[in-house]
Amino acid sequence: MELPKNILITGASGLIGTQLTSLLNARNANVFHLGRSAKSGNSYQWNVNKGIIDPEALKGKDAIVHLAGANVGDKRWTTARKQEILKSRTESTRLLYDKLKNSTHTVKHFISASAIGYYGFENEEKWYSEDSAPGNDFMASVTRAWEEEVDKIESLGIRVVKLRIGIVLSAEGGALKEIARPVKLFVGAPLGSGRQPVSWIHIDDVCGIFLKALEDPAMRGPYNAVAPDPVDNKTLTRAIGRALHRPVVLPPVPAIVLKAMIGEMATVVVTGTRISAKKITDAGYQFKFTRIDDAVTNLLS
Fold first, then answer.
1. How many domains does the chain have?
2. Which long-range contacts (CB under 8 A, 24 or more apart) does 30-33 make?
3. If we measure between CA atoms, which residue out of 128, 71, 124 comes closest to residue 255?
4. Average pLDDT in the chain
5. 33, 29, 27, 30: which is closest to 12 by C-alpha?
6. Helices 233-244 and 175-184 sit at what angle, rounded to 10 degrees?
7. Whole-angstrom Cα distance, residue 297 to residue 31?
């Protein structure tokens, strides 16, 4: 297995893109970024709304890692915001497909982010694998439409891998930072019932799975990028408390309060799904972090 030499990353300024870029550079890959502005000689500009990509962006590239998409948790889910979340994923992917289809290029591998939201948040007891049917809620419909656009790229003779990413734990931002903030202030509490499953993954393992997907030609199609042992929200919150040496003694924040505060987006935190990591482990990936206490301590200590 050999890492592609010239790799183009969209959405490279996010949590995953930033760390993945560093890891790829450390392994002597040539990393290029595709974003809304060209900040250096290794970056290219695109405008998804106008259907424009710098014509040099695809030339000489061996692989594309597609991470672009509006942050789901940044703003309240108004009708306009929902459209932005959907279009940022589907239209950016469609633009890449069109440019790959209608240009001369050397791209052989297309590794796309996806999300465990594909399965919906309808059954907290069921285990979901890559063969499970998609859900019916908003995030499921977004992720399904996103993957349908990604799948079109496979018709161009390009190997496609879709990584359905779970709740990423990182010291730099995302869910862990938000949950840890009230814990640090001695007002941490589980959310909703506290019993909802959290299919989490350490940022190092997310990036490790992307690296494996880039260099392993046997990987094709969807893979769940989650740790093998999901925990409930209460267990996660208490693990954060232990890592920060803070008690977590307050009662759970009721779901109705969260929904009043952040609207429909509360669905993401007051419900959850149990996602299987069997396919990626069977593919040979060895997790660095399989226990929530180890992961949280590593990130917060």
1. 1
2. 30/5, 30/6, 31/7, 32/6, 32/7, 32/8, 32/57, 32/61, 33/8, 33/9
3. 124
4. 93
5. 33
6. 60
7. 31
Among 18-27, 51-60, 184-193, the minimum mean pLDDT is found in 184-193
237 and 251 Cβ atoms separated by less than 8 Å: no
User: Residue 242 domain-assigned?
Assistant: yes
Output the pTM of the full model.
0.94
Side chain identity at residue 99, one-letter code: K
CATH of the domain at 185: 3.40.50.720
CA dihedral 205, 208, 213, 215 (to 10 degrees): -160
Flag whether 1 is in a domain: no
Percent of the chain with pLDDT over 70: 99
- pLDDT tens digit string along 167-218? 999 999 888 888 888 888 878 888 888 899 999 999 999 999 999 999 999 9
Q: Rounded distance, CA 73 to CA 96, Å? A: 25
User: Residue 169: which of 207, 195, 140, 142 has the closest Cα?
Assistant: 207
Q: Angle, nearest 10°, between helix axes 138-154 and 79-101?
A: 10
How many angstroms separate the Cα of 24 from the Cα of each of 30, 37, 67, 84? Answer: 8, 21, 15, 30
Note down the domain range covering 25: 6-300
